[in-house]
Amino acid sequence: MFPALKARINEQLANGLPFVAYRKPNSDAVIGIFQSSTTVHKISDYSSEGFIFAPFDDIGHAVLIPLHEKIVATDYRPKVVPPSPKFQVDSTQRDFHIQLVQKGISEIKKGHFKKVVLSRRFQVEAKDSPIELLENLLSSYTSAFCYLWYHPGVGTWLGATPEILLRTVNKEFATMSLAGTKALQADNASEWGAKELEEQALVTDYIEKALNGKVANLSASGVETLRAGILLHLRTKITGQSLVGLQEIIEALHPTPAVCGLPLMAAKEFILQQENYDRQFYTGFLGELNFKRTEQRSSNRKNQENQAYKSVKRCSELFVNLRCMQLLEDKALIYVGGGITVDSVPEKEWQETVNKSSTMLKVLQNVR
Ligand SMILES: C=C(O[C@H]1C=CC=C(C(=O)O)[C@@H]1O)C(=O)O
């Protein structure tokens, strides 16, 4: 699988230098971006060109790997990933999570907020190398944004997320409202429940209001079902034209009620106080920021030869950091959560986090 890029990644890891390797949904290309120093480049505005990695809380601490060295590998071939020996339910956090969800529901009933996304983090033994895990992710989840991020000042993270935070090409703008989950089973044709439909509608409504005055000609698709691994979600695509800069749009969108809640501040306060761990980069966002794309303006041959007819577009493509894990020396921390509304059933919400954890557990092979 992509030997030249793999060799470059291994060299970077051996030297303790930052890089990110990723593949966009349904793409053939695996991209690597490499940094030649250990500097932690903090983002102050969103005008730089590079790959951004932003936490859930306080996106002022977002980190950038500037676009200096980029390798694009198109020789990637998927491999067969055997069933993971780690793919089993760990129930040690069950009671805590169920109580957390009960507290969330009771706050909703008291009218403190309408929706809150509650999550947990658990640890598994993992001796697989980062590159082995990246290969397993790429082979297992072709329609997700798969990545491996390494920075000695930040950590090692991997994920396969189905959720776009935003895509922009100059002023053209797209995002999505993604929420509501059910397991992919024989009864896929079954209707979505009222709880899932409401929880996803809240996200769509929030995004439309948040972008009011910032994006022109805002238009939302119908609600559709999206498959992500062994899960199904509800999705609405939202498009328009940006009227303001990228920073203003990102700050209006993040965190959406797909990862935080509604109203934002009350839900966030509850999360920070009650979850009892630090989400760090889980439910933050990551991706290409201000990449230049050169396009020919005309198909006329004479024009193509003339540099003046080339146009340079600024493109950003950011994803929400879901279905992810953080690698430590000999273990992985897996992050999972779900949206809670007044109709949530705590036991089902626990099961949903168990189902979501399969996305990362399935790629862990090496349990020595
Ligand atoms: C918070 C997560 O998922 C979000 C995205 C899609 C569906 C979700 C849900 O049904 O709760 C969550 O809003 C997660 O995977 O950890």
What would you note in describing this structure?
The protein is α+β, with helices and mostly antiparallel strands and 368 residues long. The protein has one domain: Anthranilate synthase. 26% of the residues lie in helices and 36% in strands. The strands form two sheets. Strands 3, 4, 5, 10, 11, 12, 13, 14, 16 and 17 form a ten-stranded antiparallel beta sheet that branches. 41% of the residues are buried. The site of the ligand C=C(O[C@H]1C=CC=C(C(=O)O)[C@@H]1O)C(=O)O has 17 residues, from strand 7, strand 11 and strand 19. The ligand C=C(O[C@H]1C=CC=C(C(=O)O)[C@@H]1O)C(=O)O binds next to strand 7, strand 11 and strand 19. It holds the Pfam family Chorismate_bind. InterPro entries: ADC_synthase, Chorismate_C.
Defining traits:
368 residues, Anthranilate synthase, 9-stranded antiparallel sheet, globular, binds the ligand C=C(O[C@H]1C=CC=C(C(=O)O)[C@@H]1O)C(=O)O, ADC_synthase, Chorismate_C
Strand content: 35-45%
Radius of gyration: 21 Å
- Order of helical and strand elements: HEEEEEEHEHEEEEHEEEHEHEHEEEH
In the CATH hierarchy, the third-tier topology is known as Anthranilate synthase
Protein name: Isochorismate synthase
InterPro entries: ADC_synthase, Chorismate_C
Domain Chorismate-utilising enzyme C-terminal: 97-292, 313-356
Pfam family, one: Chorismate_bind
